[in-house]
What we know:
By secondary structure, the protein is mainly beta. Helix content is 10%, strand content 33%.
Amino acid sequence: MTSLAGVNLDPNVQENNGEFTVLPAGKYKACIVNDELKDNRAGTGKVLTLKVQIMEGQFAQEILTDYINIINPNATAQAIGQGTLRRICNLCRVQYPPQDTAGLMGKPMTITVAVEEFTSNNTGNTLKSNKIKKYDPVSEMATTTPAPAPVQPEQNNLQPANAW
């Protein structure tokens, strides 16, 4: 049994019904607000779990979770994970490899978010979730709404480069 005596719980907090918001795919201004280093499921490596909070717009305060394989028996997975951590360190102006993650907290960046479908282990239903695909510097291109659809070639007045 865990004692909650002395824990400052908000008596007015709204009940959580277990649902979560799936953000539309797009670019968002965000920052890392929490992290945890854990063993991977197989116990053969380490995963850095990042909590990334949207900073502006309709989805401000929403938190996404990113899982970064920083130690993994699969060399490709490990290289991708360590490369992602290096990218985040560079964006936050933290020397890589960092001794800790304190310098990564609260630094604004642009994240590219995708929507992925998966099958629920419990119900077999198809569900959706978000995946952070990319970390970039904050720019005017960052939006808090879905990215506009690319313009199709037939919708613009540009001629192909080889059309004479």
